Amino acid sequence: MDEFAPSPQVARIREQLGHPVIDSDGHLVEFRPVAMEYIERAGGSDILQRFSDEQRATFLSRDWYGLTDDERMAQWTHRPPFWGEPLRNHGLDLATASFPDLLYARLDQLGIDFTVLFPTIGINPQGYADEDVRRACCRGLNDYYADHWMGHPDRMTPVAVIPMATPEEAIDELEHAVRDRGFKAVMLASYVKRPLRAGGWRADTFGIDSEHDYDPVWAKCG
Predict the structure, then answer these.
(1) How confident is the model at residue 104 (pLDDT cuts 50, 70, 90)?
(2) 144 to each of 28, 138, 190, how far by Cα in Å?
(3) The pairing of beta strand 114-118 with beta strand 156-158
(4) Which element (helix H / strand E) includes 114?
(5) Distance between CA atoms of 55 and 68, rounded to whole angstroms?
(6) Which of helix, strand or coil describes residue 16?
(7) Is 168 buried (19+), middle (13-18) or exposed (0-12) by CB count in 10 A?
């Protein structure tokens, strides 16, 4: 008996469908020690500390747990996404999200024919203020995803992370991800935080009020 065979309920539902089931917003959970090796390889020996500093500056900061309610309110500190790690069948399910061969073996059990896998660690580096960290993280993680998550193209594909602070860096990473590493899907940052002279920042969404012309990026994507 296949230990990852779908349950009778899943099998019954699948039999009634006249179409494949595509998970267009799947997520992988990076195996952090290996992912960090790739980031260090891309950015140099001091990049991991700078990466940690950038992480702490985002809403994912673990500082939330050490603050009082008043401090959380005063600092507008967000709670980290504790729901990102499965709990009921923690060991197997977390491993499934972290190891591609295991996920591939369980796709029928999950009722999924094809899944597009977005990152977890890789969601935020696109917006890091430190250019060296931003670009090293995107490059290192994309190499990690390519090396570890492209082994089953018939049923899953990873998504490359593309920084968008300037058109030049976006195009550089697009060329590496698609041309050099063979990605079929990419995730572009949806906006860039542009600092204001009076303090604070505004969201640059790459339209007519942008500081840059992003038409070359859209052309490259086409």
Answers:
(1) very high
(2) 12, 10, 22
(3) parallel
(4) strand 114-118
(5) 21
(6) helix
(7) exposed
3-state helix, strand, coil in the chain (%, to 5): 50, 15, 35
Query: What class, spelled out in words, does domain 30-58+89-221 have in CATH?
Result: alpha beta
- Do strands 186-188 and 160-162 pair parallel, antiparallel, or not at all (unpaired)? parallel
What one-letter code names the amino acid at 106?
A: R
Q: State yes or no: pLDDT of 1 exceeds 60.
A: no
Give the burial class of 187: count Cβ atoms within 10 A of its Cβ; 0-12 exposed, 13-18 middle, 19 or more buried: middle
Phi, psi of 38 (to 5 degrees): -65, -40
Sequence-ordered alpha helix ranges (H) in the chain: 8-16, 32-43, 47-56, 69-75, 90-98, 100-110, 131-149, 167-174, 215-221
Cα separation, 13 vs 1, in Å, equals 20
Residue 149's nearest CA partner among 222, 194, 105, 98 is 98
- pTM across the whole model: 0.87
